[in-house]
């Protein structure tokens, strides 16, 4: 029996409805359990001495004074930990030519960025450990630094890792057609340079890890604020030489992650290594200052791009040269090349054209490590693409909506493979654009803009179409040799009273995984969501899975949950049919009752099935299957990725005297396939837009030429705050994927992917008549005035 | 980072606080609303302080009239400054400044005395105090001392208050009929410290301009004031550019801050109907 998703009146119709989140009550009641809330017997704390230099040779390390301080238990250097922990290299085999040196939990010979952990001090309290850390003396001999992206490969730039020969981590060009000829002959070529600033995720809960080593059992338990528990399980096992089944990673409540918590961090591995050496629980809680220098950074791209068009405004091709600086090491195990790689895939993504060239150069520098952060590569690619499209529209005198209508891939053109090589199953660019134009009343807004312009008020409208990569297959990491699972699983178990427990490999970071899983399992089994208890984030009990990243939870984990729930339903009906002398196919389960499918007549409560199966199995025919616990795993196989699409619009007012931008309104129409919980999808989009606005207007980690970080507190690293956020209107188009019965794609990154470009285009639309434009994010008031020529010195 | 302090005592009265300060031998630090001090402790920029908590000294809280002056106790919180009817009537500049200071949660704890004593050059009240020609009232081992606001702020986080003194109150000349008070600032996000700001008082046709975030301390902008008195706005903006002395940081360059000051002054002139 298939689910008739198009019928909202079908029985158990929980998929597609806004139902309350099962974990929200607990969290608002203050009963959340984050890692820092956990205290174990004999637990100690670790604090790190971090490098104050961007690049320095490590000489003598004097730990004597720290070791004798009251409250300090032990001090570890890189050499101490290297004895129990093997180093790692963030490389993927399919990224040809990629280089990165081995990285240790604590720096051995050289410190390569400000904030790199060098010495670990263990104390009875965090304060004791910090006091000890302050007494450790490290002899640093400063070395020449690499900070600039564009000159990183110049012959006179020092080489950061001598053994690698140069500062190039990875380079890839994606090319199709005859780019040089087309650009030489095109009616119109428009060019611009773009920058996306280095920023970071700023999770509300910082990274925290508490590791215990039980020498008796030979088992390690790590409570950690993380998005990918099974991945971490394998990596801790591998590097600390423990069988995988003897490493248990537990991710309870997680206070936001955004990609920050999907990587291997030296301070976290060091904590695990120390726990193993000391045979006792060790906790590391990153504080906010450590977060700015210790968490991954992202973006930091500089690019030049060109677009070619014919007389009619038809796009002929894109030609982009992208550069990105990733710090001194490629992140483990996902690598720091993926953001650049995504740019080479995603440029021009929504449009039809034949000629394509995009090269990315990923270079090393002495700054924090850059890695995957919400919407990896998308905001960069969308800003370049949509910045060029809008600039072309303006120069050709074509309305930006009209230019997009002429070039967006037709809604009936699928499946197809784009010039960049992306295989697309089914998108809805035109329907989405139509919905956007209607939602924002585009014509009226243009009229208002014009009328206000005459009064000296400068408003702008910016549009950004985009595609978003979701539901990744092993093509993303697995084929490169990384032990990162693209499949996911769910186990559903019916308890005797007919209530249900479901264990999923997808994790909850605050985004509502547990809510949608409860909805899916409830509908699949035929019980109300309140009767479903979801268990996430414990590698000892949840099916092996990938966790939360790349907008995969709903599409991959959701399908596994659906199938596992359907399997339990099937088993329950088989038992009920035997008890009722009926055919299983004539029965259904609705709200916990076995009913006659045709008439809806109630036949038996599920609790009766449970009672008989668990306590009076003797009354059932011998050999009758009665497995009220079922596990299903799901992996996508038709397409490497399920792309989604959408379009955003931003309406802004620029104060051309101060350069300040006021966000008046923001719209997003988005197609994530089947929507499981409309409210949660809307809030994913809104939250994503806010992070995108952060990129466009506020967030920037500043380094000086010596690699010293210049900001790094919440006072000078500006995150977007509610006071400045506009109203956001969210609409949906639904094009389910046919890879799965559920039909869900991802929705977690769409907001972040498109918002920076929409805001950029809106600002430029506002200031274009004054003869300026901005393409270097964030668009601070000062940068806007400089673009206008108001400030020159 | 964990804050590290040398000790904590709760002072019952001003004289108790003064004797605790004396006992601490230079290591004493007054804790009022804690909205700057606790952050500094958590950042590790100060440690080992003997904290003397004055937040419970009722005598230092609230506003009262004394002759032709409004006396505002040091412990009057930002939220009180914004809502107190006496302040709204007699020192409207402060009432207008308070909502520009930080966020609700901080305004519920932070005090005007703490802000004046801390002397952040980007803070609103110190510039208001200068524009209002206010007087800072200090209590010390040798009694009360009154210092003109203009002489109180000496530099970055530096004031004329001696280590053994408490800032007890600020005395503001009561606004006369027809007196105009305007404050404008440019801040990246609501509640942020300003990138540039001006507090202006027009009293008997004369202007006093206090600039904040435009130098290492709040600045009285005498060149701009004279031009504005003469109704010469272009002249005032030009003079302001040399009255102020901003620095560059990751938020804004000195050139941009100077430019902003000029824009704010023009807008204030329109508010005041000058020119
Ligand atoms: C997020 C944030 C944003 C902020 N934004 C702004 C802003 O936009 N504008 C602004 O002006 N401020 C801002 N502040 C600072 C805030 O206004 C503080 O409250 C104020 O600066 C200090 O007052 P307090 O009572 O909290 O003093 P405390 O933090 O307790 O003390 C600050 C300093 O003053 C000394 N001190 C305090 N009271 C006295 C006294 N009576 N006599 C002598 N010394 C004393 C203390 O010893 C300490 O050195 C912000 C603070 C935060 C956390």
Keywords:
heterodimer, A: 793 residues, alpha+beta, Aldehyde Oxidoreductase, domain 4, Aldehyde Oxidoreductase, domain 3, 3 domains, seven-stranded mixed beta sheet, 19 helices, 28 strands, B: 275 residues, Uridine Diphospho-n-acetylenolpyruvylglucosamine Reductase, domain 2, Uridine Diphospho-n-acetylenolpyruvylglucosamine Reductase, domain 3, Enolase-like, domain 1, five-stranded antiparallel beta sheet, four-stranded antiparallel beta sheet, 12 helices, 14 strands, 35% helix, globular, binds flavin-adenine dinucleotide, FAD (chain B)
Q: How would you sum up this structure, described in words?
A:
Chain A: It comes from Jiella pacifica. Chain A: InterPro entries: Ald_Oxase/Xan_DH_a/b (IPR000674), Ald_Oxase/Xan_DH_a/b_sf (IPR036856), Ald_Oxase/xanthine_DH-like (IPR016208), AldOxase/xan_DH_MoCoBD1 (IPR008274), AldOxase/xan_DH_MoCoBD2 (IPR046867), AldOxase/xan_DH_Mopterin-bd_sf (IPR037165). Chain A: One of its GO terms (molecular function) is oxidoreductase activity. Chain A: Residues 29-144 form the Aldehyde oxidase/xanthine dehydrogenase a/b hammerhead domain. Chain A: This is Molybdopterin-dependent oxidoreductase. The complex is a heterodimer of chains A (793) and B (275). Chain A is built from 19 helices and 28 strands. In chain A, 28% of the residues lie in helices and 24% in strands. Chain A folds into three domains: 24-32 and 487-634, Aldehyde oxidase/xanthine dehydrogenase, molybdopterin binding domain (Aldehyde Oxidoreductase, domain 4, 2-Layer Sandwich), CATH 3.30.365.10; 35-143 and 206-254 and 260-294, Aldehyde Oxidoreductase, domain 3 (Alpha-Beta Complex), CATH 3.90.1170.50; 377-471 and 640-787, Aldehyde Oxidoreductase, domain 4, CATH 3.30.365. The model of chain A has no long low-confidence stretch (mean pLDDT 97). Chain A has a seven-stranded mixed beta sheet with strand order 3-5-1-12-9-10-11, with helices on both faces. In chain A, strands 7-15-14-13-8 form a five-stranded mixed beta sheet, with helices on both faces. A four-stranded mixed beta sheet of chain A has the order 18-26-27-28, with helices on both faces. The N and C termini of chain A lie far apart (71 Å). The longest helix of chain A has 28 residues, at 553-580. Chain A is of the alpha+beta class and 793 residues long. Chain B is of the alpha+beta class. Chain B has three domains: 5-53, Uridine Diphospho-n-acetylenolpyruvylglucosamine Reductase, domain 2 (2-Layer Sandwich), CATH 3.30.43; 58-173, Uridine Diphospho-n-acetylenolpyruvylglucosamine Reductase, domain 3 (2-Layer Sandwich); 180-272, CO dehydrogenase flavoprotein, C-terminal domain (Enolase-like, domain 1). Chain B is 35% helix and 27% strand. Chain B has twelve helices and 14 strands. Chain B has a five-stranded antiparallel beta sheet. Chain B has a four-stranded antiparallel beta sheet with strand order 11-12-13-14, sandwiched between helices. A three-stranded parallel beta sheet of chain B has the order 1-3-2, covered by helices on one side. In chain B, a hairpin with a 6-residue loop joins strand 13 and strand 14 (219-220). In chain B, helix 10 packs antiparallel against helix 11 and helix 11 runs antiparallel to helix 12. Chain B starts with a strand and ends with a helix. The model of chain B has no long low-confidence stretch (mean pLDDT 97). Chain A binds chain B through residues 126-127, 130-131, 287, 289, 657-660, 698, 700, 702, 710-711, 713, 715-716, 718, 721, 723-724, 780-782, 785, 790-791, 793, and chain B through 1-2, 4, 43, 186, 188-193, 195, 249-253, 255-256, 259-260, 263. Flavin-adenine dinucleotide is lined by residues 29-37, 39, 74, 101-102, 106, 110-111, 113-115, 117-118, 123-124, 161, 166-167, 191, 193 of chain B.
């Amino acid at each position: 029996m298939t689910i008739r998703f198009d019928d909202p009146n079908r029985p158990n119709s929980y998929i597609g409805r806004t139902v309350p989140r099962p974990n929200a009550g607990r969290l608002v009641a203050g009963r959340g359990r984050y890692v820092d809330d956990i205290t174990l017997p004999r637990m100690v704390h670790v604090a790190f001495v971090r490098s104050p230099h961007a690049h320095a040779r490590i000489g003598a390390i004097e730990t004597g004074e720290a070791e004798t301080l009251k409250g300090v238990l032990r001090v570890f250097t890189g050499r101490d930990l290297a004895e129990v922990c093997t180093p790692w290299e963030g490389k993927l085999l399919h990224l040809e030519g990629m280089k990165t040196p081995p990285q240790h939990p604590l720096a051995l010979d050289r410190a390569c960025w400000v904030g790199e952990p060098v010495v670990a001090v263990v104390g009875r309290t965090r304060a004791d450990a910090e006091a000890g850390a302050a007494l450790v003396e490290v002899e640093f001999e400063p070395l020449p630094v690499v900070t600039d992206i564009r000159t990183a490969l110049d012959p006179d730039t020092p080489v950061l890792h001598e053994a690698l020969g140069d500062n190039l981590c990875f380079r890839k060009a994606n090319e199709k057609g005859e780019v040089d000829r087309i650009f030489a002959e095109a009616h119109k070529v428009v060019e611009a340079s773009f920058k996306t600033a280095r920023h970071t995720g700023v999770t509300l809960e910082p990274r925290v890890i508490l590791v215990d080593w039980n020498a008796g059992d030979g088992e390690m338990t790590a409570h950690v604020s993380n998005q990918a528990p099974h991945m971490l399980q394998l990596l801790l096992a591998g590097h600390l030489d423990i069988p995988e089944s003897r490493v248990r990673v537990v991710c309870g409540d997680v206070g936001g992650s955004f990609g920050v918590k999907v990587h291997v961090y030296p301070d976290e591995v060091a904590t695990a290594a120390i726990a193993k050496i000391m045979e006792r629980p060790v906790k590391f809680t990153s504080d906010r200052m450590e977060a700015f220098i210790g968490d991954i950074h992202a973006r930091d791209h500089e690019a030049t791009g060109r677009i070619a068009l014919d007389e009619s405004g038809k796009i002929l091709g894109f030609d982009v040269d992208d550069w990105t600086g990733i710090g001194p090491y490629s992140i483990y195990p996902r690598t720091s090349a993926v953001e650049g790689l995504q740019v080479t895939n995603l440029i021009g993504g929504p449009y039809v054209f034949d000629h394509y060239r995009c090269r990315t150069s990923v270079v090393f520098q002495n700054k924090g490590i850059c890695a995957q952060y919400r919407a990896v590569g998308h905001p960069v690619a969308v800003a370049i693409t949509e910045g060029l499209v809008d600039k072309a529209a303006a120069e050709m005198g074509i309305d930006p909506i009209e230019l997009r209508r002429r070039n967006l891939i037709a809604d009936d053109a699928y499946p197809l493979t784009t010039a960049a090589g992306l295989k697309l199953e089914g998108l809805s660019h035109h329907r989405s654009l139509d919905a956007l134009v209607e939602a924002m009343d585009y014509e009226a807004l243009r009229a208002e803009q014009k009328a206000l312009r005459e009064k000296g008020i400068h408003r702008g409208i910016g549009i950004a179409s985009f595609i978003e990569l979701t539901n990744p297959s092993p093509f993303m990491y697995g084929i490169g040799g990384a032990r990162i699972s693209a499949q996911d699983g769910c186990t559903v178990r019916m308890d005797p009273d007919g209530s249900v427990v479901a264990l999923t490999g997808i994790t909850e970071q605050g985004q509502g995984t547990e809510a949608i899983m409860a909805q899916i399992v409830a509908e699949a089994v035929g019980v109300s969501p309140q009767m479903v208890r979801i268990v996430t984030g414990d590698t000892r009990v949840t099916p092996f899975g990938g966790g939360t990243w790349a907008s995969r939870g709903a599409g991959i984990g959701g399908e596994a949950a659906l199938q596992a729930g359907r399997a339990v339903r099937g088993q329950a009906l088989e038992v009920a049919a035997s008890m009722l002398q009926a055919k299983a196919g004539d029965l259904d389960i609705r709200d916990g009752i076995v009913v006659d499918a045709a008439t809806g007549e109630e036949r038996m409560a599920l609790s009766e099935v449970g009672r008989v199966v668990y306590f009076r199995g003797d009354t059932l025919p011998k050999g009758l299957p009665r497995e009220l616990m079922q596990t299903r795993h799901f992996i996508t196989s038709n397409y490497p990725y399920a792309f989604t699409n959408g379009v955003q619009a931003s309406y802004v007012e620029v104060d051309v005297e101060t350069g300040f931008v006021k966000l008046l309104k923001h719209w997003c129409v988005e197609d994530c396939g089947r929507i499981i919980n409309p409210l949660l999808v809307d809030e994913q989009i809104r939250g994503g837009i806010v992070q995108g606005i952060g990129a466009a207007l506020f967030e920037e980690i500043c380094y000086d030429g010596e690699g010293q970080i210049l900001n790094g507190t919440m006072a000078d690293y500006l995150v977007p705050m509610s006071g400045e956020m506009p109203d956001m209107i969210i609409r949906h188009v639904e094009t389910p994927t046919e890879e799965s019965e559920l039909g869900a794609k991802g929705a977690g990154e769409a907001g972040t992917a498109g918002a920076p470009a929409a805001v950029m285009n809106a600002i430029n639309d506002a200031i274009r008549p004054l003869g300026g434009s901005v393409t270097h994010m964030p668009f601070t008031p000062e940068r806007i005035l400089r673009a206008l020529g108001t400030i020159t010195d | 980072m964990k804050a590290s302090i040398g000790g904590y005592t709760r002072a019952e009265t001003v004289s108790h606080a003064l004797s605790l300060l004396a006992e601490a031998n230079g290591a004493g630090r007054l804790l009022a609303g804690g909205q700057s001090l606790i952050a500094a402790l958590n950042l590790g920029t100060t440690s080992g302080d003997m904290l003397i908590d004055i937040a419970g000294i009722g005598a230092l809280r609230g506003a009262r009239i004394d002759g032709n002056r409004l006396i505002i106790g040091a412990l009057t919180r930002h939220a009180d400054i914004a809502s107190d009817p006496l302040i709204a009537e007699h020192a409207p500049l402060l009432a207008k400044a308070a909502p520009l200071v930080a966020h609700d949660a901080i305004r519920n704890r932070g005090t005007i005395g703490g802000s004046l004593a801390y002397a952040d050059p980007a803070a609103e009240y110190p510039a208001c105090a200068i524009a209002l020609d206010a007087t800072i009232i200090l209590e010390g081992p040798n009694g009360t001392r009154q210092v003109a606001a203009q002489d109180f702020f000496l530099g970055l986080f530096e004031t004329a208050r001696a280590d053994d003194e408490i800032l007890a109150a600020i005395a503001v000349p009561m606004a006369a009929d027809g007196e105009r008070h305007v404050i404008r600032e440019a801040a990246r996000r609501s509640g942020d410290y300003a990138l540039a700001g001006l507090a202006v008082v027009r009293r008997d046709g004369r202007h006093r301009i206090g600039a904040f975030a435009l130098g290492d301390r709040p600045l009285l902008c005498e060149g701009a004031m004279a031009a504005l008195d003469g109704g010469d706005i272009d002249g005032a903006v030009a003079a302001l550019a040399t009255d102020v002395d901003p620095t560059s940081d990751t938020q804004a360059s000195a050139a941009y801050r100077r430019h902003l000051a000029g824009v704010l002054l023009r807008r204030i002139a329109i508010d005041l109907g000058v020119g």
